[in-house]
Amino acid sequence: MSFGIEKEFLRSLLEEAEKGHLQLPDFQRPWVWDIDHIRSLLATISLGQPAGALMLLQTGGPHLAFKPRPIEGADKATAAPHRLVLDGQQRLTSLYQTLMRDQPIATRDSRGKPLTGWLYIDMQEALAESSDRESCFVFTPPDRVVRAFNREIIRDLSAPDAEFEHMMFPSYLVFDPTKWQTGFFKYHGVESEAYDVWTKFQNTVLERFKTYLFPVIELKNDNDRASICHVFEKVNTAGVPLTTFELATATYAAEGFELRKDWDEHRKHMVSASPILKEVTETQFLQAVTLYATYRANREGIPWSTRNGRVPAVGGRRQDMLELPLDQYRAHAPAIRQGMIDAAKFLHSQHIFDERFIPYDSQLVPLSAILAVLGWPLKSMQHFSKLKQWYWCGVLGELYGGTTETRFSADMQQVIDWVLNHGPEPATIKDAVFSSGRIDELRYRNSAAYKGIYALLTAEALEWLSLQPMQHATYFNEKIDIHHIFPRDWCRRNGIADAISDSVVNKSPIGSYTNRLIGGNAPSKYLNLLMARGEHTPESLEKALTSHRIALKFLQADDFAGFYQDRRARLLQLVAEAMGKPVAGNTMQGMPNLSALAPTTEADAAADIAENIEPYETEEFGEAAG
Fold first, then answer.
1. For the GmrSD restriction endonucleases N-terminal domain, which residue ranges apply (predicted)?
2. Which of 367, 430, 433, 368 is nearest to 398 (CA)?
3. What are the angstrom distances between the C-alpha of 136 and each of 36, 120, 130, 170, 180?
């Protein structure tokens, strides 16, 4: 990377900003500094102390077409920029607002509340030896009248003579104080003590602003776009790091294309087709477009201008996204929009109906790009089975957490070739491992494998009361969610630790009404309630539970240990079926020790809700099952 380091006068930098020769790349976020940060910066400069270096970028490079915008407040900037600010926006904007503009400053207080007014330098306070320099920078309301809480006027600076009387110097005149100085001398007289105050203030405060030098790192315009964006991210500490999408937005804006507006239109169509897609981010969409575009270009031998005329490798890395040519984005974004909609259809086919239960939203990136190539519905059951196996290996093998760009690239090529019988089994299927002990650790819905097992159960399960399959309508009408089978409170009363009872082994998709009916009852008690409310026969009740891979006999006996061991083995078989490969280890490996669990005593049983169903005629069903 080529760059130079020089020192430049603060005044020259601000004058460049006023003309428009120094601007911001459009991907910079807005000015956000509050009044405390501004006063601290001004104090630092007025003392001649270091305030950090600035990083600027020369414009005009062959690969650096970023849309520029003036520094906030530089309303008269009309010239084309010679340089863009990569690091130092907050400092330069704060200095421009306070030192160059004869207008109220619109900032915020330390709590983030909007604050508008004028900034003055208290000359006497600035010269006091014991003074905290920050305290000499005084912020006043827009009318320049400072009032107490009871509206009593503390200081009125609304007229020039009042400024002269109180020796309050307007900050925006730091570089051009002559006219104000003339009025000050006329008000006080040149033979007064005020003359000495002014002379000392000018020499020790104003002169520091006029002669202040900022170290400037200037990146040359022969650097490539991805390197510049990488540097910007490393040095940007003023707020939330910029996303790749925001950087791409600024790049495309230089060609007159509004990427954000285009994304909003695609998102509207996607969410309209399937609400499950409402959590897809703009960066994920751009990544999917990049993955698909590089695949097409690579397979068809199409060179890219942003790759110096080379054919791109298949990828969805950050650099790949930043080098995606606008014409490629525009050509392939519609295909990914449809690919996302088709991905939602695939998820629905796997009984994933709620965005909260998508195991990995990151896996939607390659899934949508793969479906953009294969189309939907898939051409054969064999194709569908292969795609389904790949998907569940990614989920249950927990392969889509963390850094995934390399896997995106591999899956994009390998899955398509494998599905079409043109290549071997993808690495994601070979790499996927589910150890039997892992199932005991799955307790919370932030785990991809936990969500995956829930979806697999939902695909088989019948609602316990209605015996309805858990299709889309049933799922939402019955308010299906994942709940405990042996209720948590019952488990605690019987000496079963939460670490065991909260495992997915002890959970299943259950409707909200059914869950309230279960309450905190022992299974043997709530089975009677289910029999009565659902008008079940023993056979129909067993059918409902079997569809959840639950053996009825263990619930009838309140046998948690027997239930846990049996259902654990059944769920491990469910995992193996979905992955198309055995779990690692035997069904007993990693099994928690249940031998010391205390049996249910009569006292415990008395604590359970009685078998009488009359109390449940209202909506007050007691404690939720989990």
1. 11-252
2. 433
3. 12, 8, 12, 12, 18
